Amino acid sequence: MGGKALLYFEIVTTLAIGIGLLVANLVKPGHGVVFHNENVAKVAEYKEKAAGIDWMDFIRHIIPSNVVEAFAQGDVLQVLVFSVLLAGDLPKWALPAILLSLISRSCHRYSLIS
After folding, report:
1. Of 1, 49, 73, 83, which is the most exposed, with the fewest CB atoms less than 10 Å away?
2. Neighbouring C-beta atoms of residue 5, cutoff 10 Å
3. pLDDT value for 15
């Protein structure tokens, strides 16, 4: 059953990408748009900042050094990475079944609220 679902996902995703590329090439969105209020200096500033990105610093920043600090500062990317790593590692822990049930019920209740 899982293989069929994966195959269906791949086929439908490829079809959607193909339709999107076809429509974008036919319609050409944004073609002919004239910007009257261009701020060339600001664009150059953003371009300069983008050129100075150190990718190793970016990758190091993704992994939180302090999880509580990442939550407190609202650093969504660090919180997301921590959540994914925790979710992947959680089944390896020898947690009692009652604790796993409590976590599962809490997640279910939270998903009903949001």
Report:
1. 1
2. 9
3. 97
pTM of the model: 0.44
SS3 40: helix
Task: Collect all residues with Cβ–Cβ distance below 8 Å to 61 and sequence separation of at least 6.
Answer: 77, 78
Count the residues in the chain.
114
Q: Percent helix, strand, coil in the chain (nearest 5)?
A: 75, 0, 25
- Cα–Cα distance list, 58 to 26, 69, 111 (Å): 37, 17, 31
In this structure, how many other beta carbons lie within 10 angstroms of the beta carbon of residue 75? 16
Residue type, 27: V
How far does Cα 18 stand from its chain's mean position? 23
> How far is 112 from 114, CA to CA, in rounded Å?
6
What letter would DSSP give residue 30? T
